[in-house]
Every structure is written in C-alpha cells, then in structure tokens.
Amino acid sequence: MKELEERIRREGTVKPGNVLKVDAFLNHQCDVTLFDHMGAAWAEHFAGKTITKILTIEASGIGIACVAARHFDGVPVVFAKKAQSINLDGDQYTTTVYSFTKQKEFPVIVAKKYLNAGDHVLLIDDFLANGKALRGLIDLCESAGAVVEGIGIAVEKGFQGGGDRLREEGYDVDSLAIVESMDAETGDIEFRR
Asked: What general EC class does the enzyme of this chain belong to (predicted)?
C-alpha cells in the first residue's frame, strides 16, 4: 500500500535493534483516515472469505481493527488481553506470547463467550516481526475451534521471517507494507516489491 509506505518513509524512525518507530500515525497517535484506507484494502483482499470475527491483541491493534471492521459489515472486534483482571470472568482461552518490542513474555487471554467454534476469524495487528504474537492468536483460535481465514498486518518486517513462515504454513497474510531492510544509522527503509 503506497500510502502507508510513504508515511513510513516520511514519518517513521529506525532505531537500533531493528525497531521501526511509527507512533506519529500508527500506534500512539492514530491517523484514522489512514486506518480507514487500510481497512478498505483488507476488505478488498479478503472479499471472498467469510469473516464473522476480527481478532487482535491489545493495545496497538485495537484502533486499527475497529476502524477496519467498518468495512466488514457489522463484524465484531475481539481483542486478546495481555493480563488477567477482575473484569475477565467465566471460562477463558489463554496462551503466552513473546513480545519483540517489549522483550518479554506475557499471557494472552480471550473470554470463551467471544470466540467460538464455527467462527471465521480475521486476525489484524499493527506489526509482524517474528510472528510470536500472531502465533498466540492462532493458538487461541485453534483452542476455540475457530477458523483463521486470514491475517491483516499494517507493517511487516520481512527480514525477520515471521510472515514468510506463516505463509509457508498456508495462512493468507496480507501485509500492507513489508519492510525488506532498514538501517538505524542512515534511516534508510527499503520495501519488498
């Protein structure tokens, strides 16, 4: 998606340790018009699939998933929580994931009443690096008996291989911008063609 790539080039910052900072428009301050265009792109890509739920993980995926859901005719958004709380009651699906940006493992939880056998799920997230967060969401779907119909990603770090592994496993991964390489010293960002 050219619009997203241009925003990354113009406003993104490459940090040491393979960190791409895009908080000016994607995951701190949110450009809702951009999110809407992203949702339209995913709706076009996944048009032939039955989608009954959109599943994301807190926190950065929530805004993107909610705006994207407007393009999926009333499909609800469910977000996996990263911590147990008194607001989470009843039976739950849980797994653990390792966060590349936070450099730690954390639980991922969805109440069973919001993810069911027979659901056809579109996973949405802001970033895909090594695929650990998405693997956690896939595990939750498998536990529920839900079918993962596709994966919509805003920015994929192609050089970290997570997206390629998921595609090799047969998942339909639609990443709107795939970063092939980036350099913290020069700030250069190259996209996969």
From this structure: transferase
